[in-house]
Predict the 3D structure of the following.
Amino acid sequence: MRLVLVDNYKEPEKAQEVLRNLTRCAGQPIEVVDRSAPDLVRKILGMGPDLVFLSGSNSLLTRLGTRREYRAEMDLVSKANFPVLGICFGHQLIGTAFGSGMTDLGEMIKRFEEVRVLDKHPIFDGLPSSIEVAESHRQVLDRVPPGFMRLAESETSPIEAMCHETRPIYSFQFHPERADDIRPHGRMIIQNLLKLAKS
């Protein structure tokens, strides 16, 4: 499979960390494209990816100019004819691209947290109805955008996971790639997504 990560981090060490974690969970190489690459949409479309990951970021979509800065990536999501997974900030970008707004929690949520699965979607195959996953955010989507289904919730985020009703677009407020041997649910989710992308 051709897997591509769109890197939204401005710190190189953060980008390397997410790449290592995603590669470990996926079990195969992942190509990286910086979100500021010229003509991002054409570049990604020309790669013919089987799955594109949109990484997290320290940027905040409620800040003036952030949406403009990431407009090309939101355009990529709207034009994608391949599976896409948005993680944390990537989840927020997908929601924003399709019409959702943002809510600031007023504090940073940075811990493993219990997330309740609301829909037995294939992305949660083999998982219990309550999963434990890593969180690292201070903003959340304020509503499910039109055309999407809410798949999971937590105490701090009513939209922990969602997917498009007719297109292979998935997104998580949590960080599945930060799974470990004690809390493997995120890794299982990524493996399920790879199966869906192959089908």
